[in-house]
Specification:
heterodimer, A: alpha+beta, 5-stranded antiparallel sheet, 21 helices, 43% helix, disordered N terminus, B: alpha/beta, 5-stranded parallel sheet, 5 helices, 5 strands, globular, disordered C terminus
């Protein structure tokens, strides 16, 4: 109900206006609904047919004009209801059998509602009997003129001599030439640049009766930019079928053509990018059929693009290897899930080694966000997987080697400690009993006996020092030396060490001097620092010449260290032997006359390193030596 | 004379002999034991005036455990203990001190130092008795 009111209302509004306009120009109008029932019947129509408006309204045109049933005319009505605008020229029409024939140009057009739905049609009829059948079209007639000029197409009509008979506004705009200046002139006179072109040949073919449709013809009006057109050339016929000329209808499709060109360029770019990418890209539709398979995918999967496109992903090699898992992955992607770096292992067709790949799978969505397929990005990680396996093996080997070395070192330290301890017990007995004898507590000895017992005591005493040092070294090496850091005033500690070594120095006639270059407060185990200093000092005293001076130096080292240096003026150390200085049991050639275990410097080095410091020595033969220990001011944590 | 024994505990025969000689030189009667268990049993039955124990002893009880046991038993809690060690490590001395030992000496023994230490310990701990 509402709909029919609307339709009637729409027509009701338009029709009186249209009727007035058309009747003022002598044009006949008939409007009809979808059942071809007359809804408007202008007075010109009434006059032409001798049927009043009142008699015609509501009746089917097929009832009013029963003889049009099954003819081209009925067909034209129907075509208008199907949405087509139909022009018929020079149509012969008799209002009744007795009347002479008249000629009409007839235009059928669909009537649409606001939604664009066809709700009926109109037919406008112009009496052209006066023009004469086959004459040049009278394009001054207002309706046709309006239609032609409002069309977005360029229209050029020519007669058989290629003289221009029609040139619509669009043509004016495209060429910049006014209609009035071109009508009646030959095409080549108006547009000399067309001479010898395909366009001219199309005009010539059309006037011989051969129509032609050309898509995407690029043409530039002189002085204008190149534009693209879809062009129709068609012969013009008179009412009797004779060719009277040709029309050229051109639609500017430059935007579309450019968009297509851009699209094509984008596609080419995409293709290039896809094919040059080192990542295999596989796209598939909602059924899991492959729609994209780039060059890297060919390489990674070992399947050619041509063999892959259109196939089910699950029919091809990488997916087939673990079919159930890969089916689930595809289903998950199609359900909208993103999966990153999923491990895939498979064997390429014709290969024996397994390929390892990582596939990231994601859904592919259309503009509205619906999942229409999926895309898998596949990377060959075989090399990496192998390298990782190699690396893991190497690490395991290194770990094993390190464990063996650590165990060997621990075993050595344990053996050294055990051996030292075992040696100390009997040595204790030797020393104890020798002391008893030496002191005459087990009866008086002769001078000769005293001398021999002294030799026993000296030998056993030396052996005990070696054993003690070895035990100490073993402890440092085993890392069981406890460090008890305290604040140390270096000046006091040096004075203490100086006092300790004083009897030995006095025995060798050596002066010990101290030089405190910087006041330094150190946090370290004072017993261990003292041990280091005493070791250097006793060495310096032992190796100095009688009457020499030994100097202890304390200086800052950088922002966070202290350097202890002990200098002597002894014989110095040959360059060839410097490298053996801090090594266990490496007594130097000059040491033969000097008692020592050969472990003192090795222990010193280990102790200093255990405290986070480092040792070094410098010497020149004959020029004395300097031994350094650099310690951090705060213990390293 | 009661209470003038000095018990010596060492698994090394040579050291047992050396210490026996030195204890005798100091003026006391030595009793020697090779294990802590034997020493502990005798000491409870007949407490000595001083016990000298090596820190390292075979069996379940070492010198530290023996010291702890002696100090825990009412019969021997008052007896001074001198622990002797082949290890010069201060950690061992600290362990022995915590167990309750009264004096500490590192091997190898200085025979004269040992004799004076034994005399000093005996005088210090038995002076009350002697004064009576």
């Amino acid at each position: 109900m509402a709909m029919s009111t609307n339709r009637d209302g729409a027509l009701g509004e338009i029709q009186p206006l249209l009727r007035t306009v058309l009747e003022a120009r002598g044009e006949a109008l008939v409007a009809y609904d979808m059942e071809l029932r007359v809804t408007e019947w202008s007075s010109v129509t009434a006059r032409n047919n001798g049927i009043s408006r009142a008699d015609a309204l509501g009746r089917s045109v097929l009832d009013i004009f029963p003889y049009i049933r099954g003819t081209a005319i009925e067909e034209e009505y129907r075509r208008s209801l199907a949405g087509e605008t139909v022009d018929a020229r020079d149509r012969q029409w008799r209002a009744s059998e007795s009347d002479p024939p008249r000629y009409y140009d007839v235009t059928y057009a669909p009537v649409r509602d606001d939604d664009g739905t066809v709700i009926g049609g109109v037919v406008v009829t112009v009496d052209v009997t006066g023009r004469g059948a086959g004459g040049s079209p009278d394009t001054d007639r207002p309706l046709l003129r309006t239609i032609l000029d409002s069309a977005p197409h360029s229209l050029v009509a020519v007669d058989r001599d290629l003289r221009i008979v029609e040139w619509n506004s669009c043509s004016e705009r495209k060429t910049g030439m006014r209609r009035a200046t071109v009508i009646g002139r030959r095409v080549l006179d108006v547009m000399p640049d067309l001479a010898g072109t395909e366009i001219m040949r199309d005009y010539e073919r059309a006037i011989t009766g051969t129509p032609r449709e050309i898509r995407d013809r690029w043409y530039a009006v002189p002085g204008e930019e190149l534009r693209c057109y879809d062009v129709i050339f068609a012969p013009m016929h008179d009412g009797r079928g004779a060719v009277t000329g040709a029309i050229m209808l051109a639609q500017d499709v430059t935007d579309r053509a450019r968009a297509q060109a851009e699209l094509a360029a984008e596609r080419a770019l995409l293709r290039t990018v896809l094919d040059s990418a080192p990542l295999g890209v596989v796209a598939f539709d909602s059924e899991g059929r492959i729609t994209e398979w780039n060059r890297a995918a060919e390489t990674v999967c070992g399947v050619d693009r041509a063999d892959a496109i259109g196939q089910l992903v699950t029919d091809l090699e990488p997916a087939r290897n673990d079919l159930e898992l890969n089916k689930r992955r595809i289903e998950r992607a199609l359900a909208g899930e993103v999966m990153l770096a999923e491990a895939v292992a498979f064997t390429r067709p014709g290969e024996s080694e397994q390929t390892h790949a990582e596939a990231s799978v994601a859904p592919l969505r259309d503009a509205r966000g619906r999942v229409v397929g999926g895309v898998a990005v596949v990377v060959d990680v075989t090399e990496r997987v192998r390298a990782e396996a190699d690396r893991d093996r190497l690490i395991a080997d290194l770990d094993a080697a390190r464990d063996r070395a650590v165990r060997a070192s621990q075993a050595k330290s344990a053996m050294l400690a055990g051996l030292s301890h075992e040696l100390r017990t009997p040595l204790g007995a030797v020393l104890g009993f020798a002391q008893l004898l030496r002191d005459g507590r087990a009866g008086a000895l002769s001078d000769e006996q005293v001398e021999y017992v002294d030799d026993v005591l000296t030998g056993a005493g030396y052996l005990l020092r070696v054993v003690n040092d070895a035990l100490d070294l073993a402890r440092v090496e085993a890392g069981v030396v406890e460090m008890r850091p305290e604040r140390i005033d270096m000046r006091a500690l040096v004075a203490e060490a100086q006092a300790t070594v004083a009897p030995l120095a006095a025995a060798h006639h050596i002066t010990v001097a101290t030089r405190i270059l910087d006041e330094v407060q150190l946090t370290a185990d004072p017993g261990r620092v003292r041990q280091v200093l005493l070791n250097y000092l006793s060495n310096a005293v032992k190796y100095s010449h009688s009457g020499d001076e030994v100097v202890v130096e304390v200086a800052r080292e950088g922002d966070d260290g202290v350097r202890l240096t002990v200098r002597d003026n002894g014989p110095g150390i040959p360059a060839t032997e410097m490298g053996r200085l801090f090594v266990e049991f490496q007594r130097l050639s000059a040491d033969r006359d000097v008692p020592g275990s050969g472990l003192g410097l090795a222990i010193t080095k280990r102790l200093v390193e255990a405290m986070g410091g480092s040792v070094s020595a410098e010497s020149s033969p004959g020029g004395g030596s300097a031994f350094h220990a650099v310690l951090p001011l705060e213990p390293a944590r | 004379m009661m209470g003038q024994y000095v018990d010596i505990v060492d698994d090394d025969a040579a050291h047992r002999k050396l210490m026996r000689i030195l204890v005798r030189e100091a003026g006391y009667a030595p009793r020697t034991h090779a294990t802590a268990e034997a020493a502990f049993e005798i000491a409870r039955l007949d407490p000595p005036s001083l016990i000298i124990a090596d820190i390292q002893l075979p069996g379940a009880m070492d010198g530290i455990a023996l010291t702890r046991a002696l100090k825990a038993a009412p019969e021997t809690a008052h007896v001074p203990v001198l622990v002797v060690s082949a290890f010069a490590a201060t950690a061992d001395e600290a362990r022995a001190r915590r167990a309750g030992c009264d004096a500490w000496l590192a091997k190898p023994l200085d025979t004269r130092e040992f004799v004076s230490l034994v005399r000093w310990l005996m005088t210090l701990w038995t002076s009350d008795v002697e004064a009576v």
